[in-house]
Amino acid sequence: MIKGKCLHEGAKCFRTSFFFVALWWLWKHRNLMCLNNETTFVTRLCCNIFSYAKTISTSLRNPSSVRRLIRWNSNNHMCTILNVDGSCNGVPIRTGFRGVIRNNSGNLIFGFSSFINNSQDIMFAELTTLHQGLILAISLNCDDLACYSNSLLTVNLIKDDLPQYHVYVVLIKNIKDLNSRNYSLQHLLREGNRCADFMAKLGASTDDVLSIHSSHLEGLQPLLRMDELGSLFVRC
């Protein structure tokens, strides 16, 4: 009897959450259409409503059981999105980086990649991909850009005061100068940075210098699609 009551209350909690979350998302979508002339795929809108309602109802029923859910563009930036990542893989270690530039709906503008010769330093790879990504964004004349990196140390190095005696002080200063525009730099956990993580491993596996990829690479398309739909991933 108690179990049945809990199930009934859980279903009621989800229906209530679903109703109010749906109202909020529909109102948000209406404002985007009227004010910014932007539209959202119905499948993505439904996915957002269901995911948010489920998260809220679960937290209300049992706060201790809530898992951390991560998604691409976690702050809902309505601008160009840059995701970057570096990697050091293999034996012997090969270092590389890649990134993806997309619009706020998740559609790919282009990706970029590179192998870094004579380096086995992941910090250098993370800083270099951020530097190159900002340069490429500037070449697109992006007035508003949100950049995501899953390296918290990299993000903190750029946001904090310039470390005078850091081994990469020149590179850090160059990034700070580029980031002085109307750009924001955010830390994103790896579960929400899957496309850049996927491409970074490919960058380390080739000998190419900086390459631009305007077409979808094999294996990347499913990841891009999940990001477009606003899929949520459980933090490992």
As for the CATH topology of the largest domain, it is Nucleotidyltransferase, domain 5
Question: What would CATH call the architecture of the largest domain?
Answer: 2-Layer Sandwich
Number of helices: 7
Q: What structural class should be given to the helix and strand makeup?
A: alpha/beta
Q: Topology as H/E string? A: HHEEEEHEHHEHEHE
Terminal Cα span: 35 Å
| Structural domains: how many | 2
- Tell me the β content: 15-25%
| Poorly predicted tracts of residues | 1-10
Give the CATH superfamily of the largest domain.
Ribonuclease H-like superfamily/Ribonuclease H
Shape: globular
Task: Describe the structure in your own words.
The protein is of the alpha/beta class and 236 residues long. Helix content is 47%, strand content 19%. It has a 6-stranded mixed sheet. The two termini are 35 Å apart. The N terminus is likely disordered. It has 2 domains: 65 residues, no CATH class; 155 residues, Ribonuclease H-like superfamily/Ribonuclease H (Nucleotidyltransferase, domain 5, 2-Layer Sandwich). It is globular and about 55 Å long.
